[in-house]
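so my prof wants the structure for this chain in the tokens format not the other one, which i didnt know existed until like an hour ago. anyway here's the sequence
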Amino acid sequence: MLDVTKGTFEKEVLKNGKPVLVDFWAPWCVPCRIVGPVLDRLSKEYTSKLKFTKLNVDDNQEIAAKHDVRGIPCIIVFSNGKEAERIIGAYPEETLRKKIDLALSKA
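here's what i got, hopefully its the right format
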């Protein structure tokens, strides 16, 4: 998964040609550390359909606030620069897969 920051968010996420998943997380967040490896596995499965990125909310508070991220883990799928789906909380792999499929159907 690609780390995005305030400096790369617009290019890598908002202006990307295909849908982009952003995992808003922090190192101290236990549920985030549980979801991270699941997203790593899913990123290999969805390589041709979806770009997977992550953004550390502690280091990029302005971006998190701009996208109204109030709790983590928060996963947002962007399509054409706009939010297509928001997944809040830690879920098992199969549930995340279903939610990602739903987001891609909207993209």
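also thought this was worth mentioning. The CA atoms of residues 76 and 86 lie 4 Å apart.
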